[in-house]
């Protein structure tokens, strides 16, 4: 909403500077977004002038040569605009004037000398109109600095959604008057009515009074269509509208001035002179004034005549009964439409207009008469119109002014600001609320004085005490609020600890040298399928895998049941080419782009893409993690499941370093080490890694991590539940991301991980008895997993075997091909006595025998 | 006899002088041991040779010579010890010198990771409010229309929906939450006052992405409901937040605003952290920076969750984390947060 200060001053005296006024209004909730100073950059080289002669430039299809009277002489100017004629008064930029970044000079063009430039409204900063030269009022004196005539300040407001009443100059003036304690001066439309009464000339039928609470119509005849007077055109321009013709301009001018949208029909084009306000029929069509043919729905309200639609109510008219050059009789519509209906229609049609944006914020039905009369007055005065007696006014249920019993004590109760009943009275009265004192016993807010506050009908946003508190606060000033500290009782603990847990993971991973990234939760199916070495219905299922809800072992496929598919979810033949669209991700109905069409099922694609982007400019390696959610589909109409996860990605060396160990590119065991440290830091003791297959990973370099959930001594025993996969990215996947080193990825389900974190830590007393150390080197087949050997040692070592640590893995001579040597150091200790060598040796022999039996292990000599 | 005595004493003096002179030139512990044997050796040492002469001397001379021998012996022993120490010191010095490192070479540091500035900002804000008795809760990022809009006094077809362009999953029903405010409803529906929570999290807006707009960003919601809280408490709480977050001398300004779920509503500004209020580009020459929106929980919202608005009062606020981080760390471009450029992330 653009409000020229000169216009505003017509209704209220303003003594503050524009900046002070903007501050006053901003503090009271009417945020002034910009102060637009019009004309400050015009200087003294832009003056008024009159076109005395105009000729076409031969050889040009659009240029004219004009002679213009500058008041002190005549000069020649070349101009390309189509709208000028001899006698027009226009703004002239003389050589040396600056228009935007352009400095005007003397130019020679096609045999003519041009000594200046005629300006359009846009070139002068007067709105956006650039369709022609700005034609000044015929009474404009010549040779005068334009700045002396037209400079102004425009206040630009963002009108909040609940205050339709502020979408007008008078609405703003009313606030200024209240805030600065000045009277509001409203125009009083006066005009003569004569001729046949409007009621005999026009019939109005409102079929849907719910969507159209009021329809008021006037008839004005004998109007002459022409351009608007300069003052009106200038105000429209500065308010951001384009002058069109006098009648249309008057309706726009009155809308800007009083806030009531109006529509002028050519009376003679309204068939049978009968206005019918009704809902559209499904599929009915109308071509709106912007030339677009629009298909309508049954919930949209139309203005029609007996033969068809003439306007979309409150949104836009059509060409059928539009005012045109031959129009002499006007049917003026001043109506009130239901905000939600106008909004729904405008949104559905993608057609937001000055009119619809006012209606959807809610307008006062009482405003229609004032608006109609003001426009009638201007049509009589400016267009020579004859106003027919009376208004056809369909208004079956007049609004009643709302009355609220208000305790001034509620102000302090809610805001802590001490106010007197008198202050409240004054503040509300200034805003045109009617306030009466009512005696009452002590009320809910501890006050003893009650006020009966009658809300003006233009303040539909005021419904109860809290609304009035805000009005009082706005008038007294938000800056008067004291600042205190909440002293109420503290609540019981109610957090689920996930905030702390996620930060715990962050701190651990940062401590391990990983950088946290934060990627979009939106992605595309194709971007996620890029993670699969081979894409088919079978492999794509890993994107939907999640641990079972009951913490049982194994994976389930998210949403499989809801999709009614087989246990495997979205069943289709794995030999068929896979259609990305069949991947059941949470789809965004109105995505910003195809790249962001659905919610992610995995954090891994964001990690890989971030590796890719950073690898272009990073010679050192990349170590990244992200903590976020996977969005797994559930049944139709249900909110998706959001699973908290951590994803890790490694690629390349830890650093550019002279230290070989740091300069070495990351490998599988770096990643596994990070995961193991994470487990250690979380005190998770029961977990296992096992070789696994996953379509994202190298088939020989992928592990599944499972953690022990539940207790071994519970009825259902301890269960190993999957947490996630880790591994080296499959070479076929790697290729798609163009990375300089092999990449390693891991995604962990934090909810399962934390289910395995012990509720409390139990201290185990440190044994004071001597410990015995024995080394053990065995040779086994290459294929024997180290974990199996370690578990066997632990099992057979029993409780006297305190720790087992692998400290050497060796292949090559003299170890036979296909074999590997594993060397452990074992530490034996008893809690209650000193262990003898004999006991330790016996245990050691038992372990060696067991390894020989289970794995064919041979003691390495 | 006297001559003999004098001659012996002179020989001892000469011995001492020679031994000490020699000691000066010794540079290794091996030579030092040689010298020890040669002069002080128990069997064949030169000093020992003098001792063997003593019995042949007269009674009167014996003690003189004996004392002289002892004096020379002590002298040589202490000189030996001093020299030994000197050599040890020197050898240590030399050994240390040989082990000298270039301490300016980079250490074998495990490269440190960095927390994303958004996580860091959320943590900092959360700590400030937890010190004021707030608890941190989170909520679903995909929400229903009811929680995101309707329960917050934003009915269907309300123009306030324009303030928050929405990504829809099921149009009209399920959406990507446009604000963290739905958790106000979820928290109040499941607990009774007193309530003090903050809710950090992701939010989504269907907006063209540019230097100051993101389609996904983060908010922190605050909600306090009890039987005595006022808007002055809101102002006091936020003033404390502003001071802790942006510096002890920060001033807070409340001005009127509109949010459908608060009444009265207030926009909260702090005096500009760059120019301290005198006006600069950052604050668009106003001297103030908008940091968050707030207000007293709307009675309709309280009624919606079954709280009696004549008994309970509450305040709520919501801030954009990116906005706070941009002000705090002087970041001029919102897209950096989702860009994940390591050159950016490493600075936090």
CATH topology of the largest domain in chain A: BirA Bifunctional Protein, domain 2
Radius of gyration of chain A: 41 Å
Q: Biggest interface: chains and residue counts?
A: A-B, 103 and 98 residues
Mean pLDDT of chain B: 92
CATH superfamily of the largest domain in chain B: Bira Bifunctional Protein, Domain 2
Query: Are there runs of chain A of 5+ residues with pLDDT below 50, and where?
Result: none
Shape of chain A: elongated
Number of strands of chain B: 10
Q: How large is the count of helical segments of chain A?
A: 23
Word description of this protein:
The complex is a heterodimer of chains A (861) and B (348). With 861 residues, chain A is an alpha+beta fold. Chain A folds into six domains: 62 residues, 2-Layer Sandwich (Phenylalanyl-tRNA Synthetase, Chain B, domain 1); 105 residues, Nucleic acid-binding proteins (OB fold (Dihydrolipoamide Acetyltransferase, E2P)), CATH 2.40.50.140; 197 residues, Phenylalanyl-trna Synthetase, Chain B, domain 3 (Phenylalanyl-tRNA Synthetase, Chain B, domain 3, 3-Layer(bba) Sandwich), CATH 3.50.40; 74 residues, Phenylalanyl-tRNA Synthetase, Chain B, domain 1, CATH 3.30.56.10; 257 residues, Bira Bifunctional Protein, Domain 2 (BirA Bifunctional Protein, domain 2, 2-Layer Sandwich), CATH 3.30.930; 88 residues, Alpha-Beta Plaits. In chain A, the strands form twelve sheets. Chain A has a seven-stranded mixed sheet, with helices on both faces. In chain A, strands 5-4-3-6-11 form a five-stranded antiparallel sheet, with no helix packed on it. In chain A, helix 11 packs across helix 13. Chain B folds into two domains: 97 residues; 229 residues, Bira Bifunctional Protein, Domain 2 (BirA Bifunctional Protein, domain 2), CATH 3.30.930.10. Chain B is 43% helix and 20% strand. Chain B has a seven-stranded mixed sheet with strand order 1-5-6-10-9-8-7, sandwiched between helices. In chain B, strands 2-4-3 form a three-stranded antiparallel sheet. In chain B, helix 1 packs parallel to helix 4. Chains A and B meet through helix 8, helix 11, helix 13, helix 14 and strand 28 of A and helix 5, strand 1, strand 2, strand 3 and strand 5 of B.
């Amino acid at each position: 909403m653009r409000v020229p200060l000169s216009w505003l001053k017509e209704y209220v005296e303003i003594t503050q500077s524009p900046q002070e006024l903007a501050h006053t209004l901003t503090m009271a909730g009417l945020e002034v977004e910009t102060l637009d100073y019009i004309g400050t950059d015009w200087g003294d080289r832009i003056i008024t002038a009159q076109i005395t002669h105009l000729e076409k430039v031969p050889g040009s299809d659009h240029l004219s040569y004009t002679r213009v009277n500058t008041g002190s002489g005549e000069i020649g100017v070349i101009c390309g605009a189509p709208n000028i004629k001899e006698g027009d008064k226009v703004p002239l930029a003389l050589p040396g004037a600056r228009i935007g970044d352009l400095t005007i000079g003397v130019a020679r063009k096609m045999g003519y000398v041009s000594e200046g430039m005629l300006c359009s409204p846009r070139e002068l900063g007067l709105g956006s109109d650039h369709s022609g030269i700005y034609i000044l009022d015929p009474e404009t004196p010549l040779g005068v600095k334009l700045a002396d005539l037209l400079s102004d300040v425009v206040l630009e407001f963002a009108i909040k959604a609940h205050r339709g009443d502020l979408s007008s100059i008078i609405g703003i003036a009313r606030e200024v008057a209240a805030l600065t304690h000045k009277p509001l001066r409203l125009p009083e439309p006066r005009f003569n009515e004569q001729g046949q009464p409007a009621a005999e000339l026009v019939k109005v039928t409102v079929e849907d009074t719910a969507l159209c609470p009021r329809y008021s119509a006037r008839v004005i005849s004998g109007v002459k269509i022409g351009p608007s007077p300069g003052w009106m055109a200038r105000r429209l321009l500065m308010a951001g509208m384009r002058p069109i013709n006098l009648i249309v301009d008057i309706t726009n001018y009155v809308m800007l001035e009083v806030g009531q949208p109006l529509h002028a029909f050519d009376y003679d084009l309204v068939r049978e002179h009968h206005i019918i306000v009704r809902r559209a029929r499904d599929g009915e069509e109308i071509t709106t004034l912007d030339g677009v043919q629009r298909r309508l729905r049954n919930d949209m309200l139309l203005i029609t005549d007996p033969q068809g639609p003439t306007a979309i109510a409150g949104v836009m008219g059509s060409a059928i009964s539009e005012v045109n050059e031959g129009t002499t009789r006007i049917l003026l519509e001043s109506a009130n439409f239901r905000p939600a209906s106008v909004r729904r229609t405008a949104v559905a049609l993608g057609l937001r207009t000055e009119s619809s944006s006012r209606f959807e914020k809610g307008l006062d039905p009482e405003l229609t008469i004032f608006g109609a009369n003001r426009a009638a007055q201007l049509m009589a005065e400016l267009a020579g119109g004859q106003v027919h007696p009376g208004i056809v006014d369909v208004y079956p249920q007049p609004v009643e002014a709302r009355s609220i019993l208000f305790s001034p004590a509620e102000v302090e109760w809610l805001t802590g600001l001490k106010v007197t009943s008198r202050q409240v009275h004054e503040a509300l009265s200034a805003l045109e609320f009617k306030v009466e004192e009512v005696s009452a016993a002590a009320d809910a807010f501890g006050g003893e004085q009650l006020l009966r506050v009658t809300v003006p009908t233009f303040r539909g946003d005021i419904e109860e005490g809290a609304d009035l508190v805000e009005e009082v606060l706005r008038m007294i000033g938000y800056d008067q609020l004291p600042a205190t500290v909440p002293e109420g009782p503290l609540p019981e603990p109610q957090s689920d600890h996930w905030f702390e847990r996620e930060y715990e993971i962050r701190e651990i991973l940062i401590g391990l040298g990983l950088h946290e990234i934060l990627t979009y939760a939106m992605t595309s199916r194709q971007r996620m399928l890029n993670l699969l070495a081979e894409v088919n219905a079978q492999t794509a299922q890993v994107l939907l895998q999640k641990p079972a809800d009951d913490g049982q072992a194994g994976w389930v496929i998210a949403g499989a049941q809801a999709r009614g598919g087989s246990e495997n979810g979205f069943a289709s033949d794995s030999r068929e080419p896979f259609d990305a669209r069949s991947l059941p991700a949470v789809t965004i109905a109105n995505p910003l782009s195809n790249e962001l069409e659905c919610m992610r099922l995995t954090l891994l694609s964001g990690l890989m893409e971030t590796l890719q982007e950073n690898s272009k400019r990073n010679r050192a390696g990349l170590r990244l993690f992200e903590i976020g959610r996977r969005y797994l589909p559930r049944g139709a109409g249900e909110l998706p499941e959001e699973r908290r996860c951590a994803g890790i990605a490694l690629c390349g060396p830890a650093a550019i370093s002279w230290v070989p160990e740091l300069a070495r590119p990351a490998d599988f065991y770096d990643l596994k080490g990070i995961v193991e440290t994470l487990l250690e830091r979380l005190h998770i003791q029961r977990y296992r890694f096992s070789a696994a297959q996953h379509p994202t990973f190298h088939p020989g370099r992928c592990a599944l991590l499972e953690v022990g959930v539940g207790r071994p001594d519970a009825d259902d025993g301890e269960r190993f539940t999957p947490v996630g996969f880790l591994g080296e990215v499959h070479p076929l996947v790697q290729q798609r991301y163009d990375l300089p080193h092999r990449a390693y990825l891991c995604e962990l389900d934090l909810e399962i991980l934390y289910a395995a974190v012990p509720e409390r830590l139990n201290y185990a007393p440190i044994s004071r008895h001597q410990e015995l150390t024995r080394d053990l080197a065995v040779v086994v087949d290459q294929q024997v997993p180290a974990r199996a050997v370690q578990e066997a040692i632990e099992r057979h070592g029993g409780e006297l075997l305190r720790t087992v640590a692998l400290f050497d893995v060796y292949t090559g001579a003299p170890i036979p091909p296909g074999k590997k040597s594993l060397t452990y150091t074992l530490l034996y200790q008893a809690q209650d006595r000193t262990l003898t060598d004999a006991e330790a040796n016996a245990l050691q022999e038992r372990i060696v025998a067991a390894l020989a039996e289970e794995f064919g292990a041979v003691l390495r000599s | 006899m006297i001559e003999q005595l004098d001659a012996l004493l002179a020989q001892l003096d000469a011995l001492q002088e020679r031994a000490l002179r020699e000691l000066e030139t010794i540079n290794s512990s091996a030579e030092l041991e040689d010298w020890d044997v040669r002069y002080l050796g128990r069997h064949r040492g030169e000093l020992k040779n003098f001792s063997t002469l003593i019995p042949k001397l007269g009674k009167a001379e014996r003690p003189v010579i004996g004392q002289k021998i002892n004096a020379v012996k002590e002298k040589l022993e202490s000189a030996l010890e001093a020299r030994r120490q000197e050599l040890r010191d020197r050898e240590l010095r030399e050994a240390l010198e040989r082990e000298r490192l270039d301490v300016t070479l980079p250490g074998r540091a495990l490269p440190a990771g960095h927390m994303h500035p958004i996580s860091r900002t959320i943590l900092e804000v959360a700590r400030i409010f937890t010190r004021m008795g707030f608890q941190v809760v989170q909520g679903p990022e995909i929400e229903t229309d009811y929680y995101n809009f309707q329960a917050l006094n934003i009915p269907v077809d309300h123009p306030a929906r324009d303030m928050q362009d929405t990504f829809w999953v099921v149009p009209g029903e399920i959406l990507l939450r446009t604000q963290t405010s739905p958790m106000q409803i979820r928290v109040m529906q499941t607990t009774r006052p007193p309530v003090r929570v903050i809710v950090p999290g992701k939010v989504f807006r269907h907006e063209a992405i540019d230097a100051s707009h993101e389609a996904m960003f983060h908010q922190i919601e605050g909600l306090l409901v009890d039987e005595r809280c006022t808007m002055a408490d809101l102002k006091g709480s936020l003033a404390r937040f502003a001071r802790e977050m942006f510096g002890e001398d920060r001033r807070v300004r409340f001005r009127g605003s509109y949010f459908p779920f608060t009444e009265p509503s207030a926009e909260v500004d702090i005096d500009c952290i760059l120019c301290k209020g005198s006006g600069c580009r950052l604050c668009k020459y106003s001297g103030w920076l908008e940091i968050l929106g707030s207000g007293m929980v709307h009675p309709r919202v309280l009624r919606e969750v079954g709280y009696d608005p004549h008994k309970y009062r509450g305040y709520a606020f919501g801030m954009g984390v990116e906005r706070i981080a941009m002000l705090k760390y002087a970041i001029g471009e919102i897209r950096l947060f989702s860009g994940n450029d390591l050159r950016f992330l490493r600075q936090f």
